[in-house]
Amino acid sequence: MDKFIIEGGVRLKGSVEISGSKNAALPILAATLLSDGKSVIKNVPPLRDVYTMLRIMRYLGAKVDMEGDVVTVEPAGYSNHTAPYKLVSTMRASVCVLGPVLAKLKRARVSMPGGCVIGPRPIDLHVKGLRSIGADIKIEHGYIVADAPKLRGARVYLGGNFGSSVLATANLMTAATLAKGKTVIESAACEPEIADLARFLTKMGARIKGYDTPIIEIEGVKSLRGAEHSIIYDRIEAGTFMAAAAITGGDVLIKHANIEHLGAIVDKLQSAGIRITRTKDGLHVKKTRSLKPVDVTTLPYPGFPTDMQAQMMALMSITKGISVIIEKIYPERFMHVSELARMGAQIYLEGPRAIVQGASRLSGAPVMASDLRASAALMLAALVAKGKTDISRIYHIDRGYHIIEDKLEKLGAKIKREKEE
Ligand code: EPU
Fold this sequence. Notes:
Elements: E1 2-7, E2 13-17, H1 22-31, E3 39-42, H2 48-60, E4 63-67, E5 70-74, E6 82-83, H3 85-88, H4 98-105, E7 107-111, H5 124-132, E8 136-140, E9 143-147, E10 155-157, H6 166-176, E11 182-186, H7 192-203, E12 207-209, E13 215-219, E14 228-230, H8 235-247, E15 251-255, H9 263-271, E16 274-278, E17 282-287, E18 296-297, H10 309-316, E19 321-326, H11 335-342, E20 346-350, E21 353-358, E22 366-368, H12 372-384, E23 388-392, H13 395-398, H14 404-410, E24 414-419
Parallel strand pairs: 2-15, 3-14, 6-7, 10-11, 18-19, 22-23
Antiparallel strand pairs: 1-23, 1-24, 3-5, 4-5, 7-9, 8-9, 11-13, 12-13, 15-17, 16-17, 19-21, 20-21
Helix pairs in contact: 1-2, 1-7, 4-6, 5-6, 6-7, 8-10, 8-12, 10-12, 11-12
The structure holds uridine-diphosphate-2(N-acetylglucosaminyl) butyric acid.
C-alpha cells in the first residue's frame, strides 16, 4: 500500500488540468452495454473505479479496450448477465450495470453492493424504478436478481427520504430506453453526470426529454446503436483544486472547470472571501483577503454537493470563526472529522451537523484515509498544516483523483508517494 507524505505551508500557484468525470464515466460505460454496436468513449479518467467497471464489462463478455483516456467497447454477443460479488464489492457504483444489462439481455444478476464508510446505501429506489417498468426483482443469496421479458414504460416517482438518487435515475433511464412506450421519472436526479448520460444515450438513438430537470421523459425505442462521446470534466475534482487554492492562500487557474456545474461551490467559496474569475480556459481562483466562515448544507444538485463536504470542512477548520456544516445526503459521512481533529481541527459533531470552530492552526500528523472525499480533505489540511503529514491508505484517493500528486506538485506542493512499511 502507498502513502502520501506532504510538507505543508506552500501557497499553490500555477495552472492545473482537470480530468474527465469519474461519476459521469461509470454509468456511461455501463450504458454501452445497451447496444450491439461499437462505442468510443473519450476523456475517461484512468482511475481505479474506471478499471473496476471495465473488468465487470469484460466479465460480462464485452470486448473492452482502454488507451490513454479513450475506451472502446464492442459489446456484440455478450451474454453473461451476472456481475459477481468479488468485483461489485470493490465499488458500489457497479450497480449501474443493472439497468443496461436487464434491458438488453432481459435479465440481470448483480451482487448487492456492500456497506460503505459513508453510511447506509440502500438500493430500494433502484428496485422501485425497475419494477415500475415491469421487471421482476428478487434479492437472493446476496444478489439482485432481475427478470424482464418485456419492459413497459410507466410513470414513477423516484424521490426518496434524502431526495433524488443519481444511480437509481441512471438505472431507470437506461432501462427505459428499450421499454415499450413512455416512461416518466418524477423527482429524477438533475446532476450534470445524469445529463451527460442522457446525451450519450441520445447519440445511441434513445429518445429522452427533460434531462437536467427533475422530470425526465423517455420514449422507448426498439434498439440502440453504438456511439462516440466525450465525457464532461470532473466538477468534484475541480472543486477540490479550488479548495486547495483557497486553503493554501494560492493563485491557481483550474483548467476545464465548468462554472455551469459549479454554481454552489463557487457561491460558497466567494462568500468565504475567495476571488473566482471565469477565464476562457476555466476558473481562476485566488485568495486576496482573509477568509470568513460560511455555513454549508449539502443537497442534491444544484445544491452544494456531498462530495465536496469534507473538503469544505477542511477549509473552514482554518477559517477564523464558527461555521455549521449540515450533511443532508449521507448524514453519517463524517469519517474525516476525527482525522482532521488529529491535526488540530476543532469540530463538534451533533447528528448530521458539524460545528467547526475555525482558525485552529493545523499541524502535520500521521492520518488515515477512509474514503475518497475524506482523503481529499486530509490532503487539503496537510497542504496548509505546519510540518509533515503522513496520509496512509491512499488507495481511496486513487479511486477518484487521477495523478493528484503530480498535479499538486506542479502547483508547488511538497508531496511524495511512498510505499507503506
Ligand atoms: N438512496 C436511497 N435509496 C436508494 C438509493 C439511494 O435511499 O435506492 C439514498 C442514499 O442513501 C442517499 C441519497 O439517496 O441518502 C442519494 O444517494 P444516491 O443514490 O444519489 O448516490 P449514488 O447514486 O449511489 C452518486 C455518486 C456519489 C455521490 C452521490 C450523491 C456515483 C458513481 N456516485 O452515488 O459519489 O456521493 O451520488 O451525489 O455517481 C464519490 O464520488 O465520492 C461518491 C460517493
